Amino acid sequence: MEQRNLGPFGPVSALTLGGGGIGHLWGKTTREECLATVKAAVDGGITLLDMAPRYGDGEAESVIGEAFGGRLPAGVRVTTKCLLGGTPPAEIEARLRSSIATSLKLMKLEKIDLFFLHSNVAPDDHPMRGHPDAAVRVTPYSVFCEHVRPLFETFVAEGLIGAWGLTGIGQPDAIIRLLGESPAPAAVQAISNPIDSPGALKFYDGPTRQRDVIATAKANGVGVLGIKAVQAGALSAEIDRPLPDDHPEMLDYKRAGRWRTLAAEIGEDPADLAHRYALTMDGVDTVVLGVKNRRELAMCLAAEARGPLDADLVRRIDESFD
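The structure assignment produced for this chain is given below.
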């Protein structure tokens, strides 16, 4: 598999195995199939495993621990995250340390290679801080700067984590600002699909500006993990789990009718095309997969092996959503 440089984090495979699928977020699967999928991903050349406690309430991290017994294969590294939300500043350090300790125990590891803030960062006075889920999902910019970022740097110095990163689906002005500050994150997770859509994870009005997030990251030497390449199934041939008609993923699925028509015209599976589009996006270093079984993994590995899309096809894809 192609190797790319994830900013200061160094070389990683073009595809990263995400924990959402093996954490049972994207449809039914089994523990046995998840274990086999993780091992097949590494055998297929994937060198980065992107986990989080919220992927199945620790299920994804537990799969990593069982699959490798605390001894990751040579060259394989792991990420995990912590969703702080509006945790009071006095409780942040304990919350972060507890989260890291639990993740290490589940994965049977001694160090996290790359640790992400899973929260959406927003300006202190931004309306998204009034969202019903803000207490769980939104961290104020000032709290991040004054409390979270210094702790991340402390954890690096202690050897508890190798590097830290941001989830880039927060309010774009705040994310872009943080990417230009020092110390900068080693990596950012950014939406990488042709409609720049985070779906149900968008908590603010206005454009996502994900292309600007990616460009700012590259300008400042920050690695970019492309996420939501198939937008939680909206860019697939069909969504494989029941959702209400007004769900953001269903609305994006309806928007993507011309996308599926174009995929059929060129003989591509829509999900494969979405992964190849993300791999072709300028500035994306590695694309995080949400697969839940070996069949889906094999399709993604085959799509990556076919290489990037040509400029004319990228143009036609972009025009299908205009």
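Interim note for the steering committee: The mean pLDDT is 95. The domain at 3-320 is CATH 3.20.20.100 (TIM Barrel).
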